[in-house]
Amino acid sequence: MVNAKAAELRELPDELLIDRLEGNKEELFNLRFQLATGQLDDPNRIKVVRHDIARTLTILRQRHLESEVEQEVARADAEALGESRAAQARGEKTGRSLADMQQEALSESEEGEEGEAGEGEKPYGEASDEEDR
Fold this sequence. Notes:
Elements: H1 2-10, H2 14-37, H3 44-90, H4 98-114, H5 129-132
Helix pairs in contact: 2-3
């Protein structure tokens, strides 16, 4: 039930979560007042409301942290792009065409395939003269 409650809260917009939070805090105040005056019927309700408040605050905090991370990533991307463009303008950095990079990757993969068997090694099944003796 707890997981369903958290999943249900995650679907709600921030404004509605804040309204629920305010309502829960008000209810908690009233429950504590009833406890102090001896009129509280269900003392377990205080615990339930406290947990609801904590759950709501946790979801709001997670959303806040996610938005901060997204903003930081966007800022870092913009900064890196600006630095790259400035380096290109100064002539410190030159770009390579996609065709050149593909050709280079193709030649590297062909070189890797040729060197896989290794020099002096015989393919499987072919024994050397020394092994036959």
